[in-house]
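How a chain folds remains the central question behind the approach discussed here. This step matters because it turns folding into a mapping between discrete strings. The sequence in question and its structure tokens are set out directly beneath this paragraph.
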Amino acid sequence: MYGSVFRMKPKAGVSARQVEEVMMSNERTPKGMISAMLLREDSGGDIWGIAVFEDEKTYRANASDPSQDAEYQKFRALLDADPEWHDGSISEFRA
């Protein structure tokens, strides 16, 4: 599996919940996506996310898809800056 862990900071006056609502309104299901999750910090500040894809190829294909960029621009408008991205291989551990 391959994907990204990312951190976002909403603009002043924009709640983490508002950013989450815009992201969750996306009805597009990218090819190869296994999972996507968001965590809103208890402090109400930063939002952390993870996007998991079958492999790096499908991850990169999604990243370069114009329809993905259109979705990104919707929530990017609510952020202080571009998200902090950490891409790489993902291992799964279950209890």
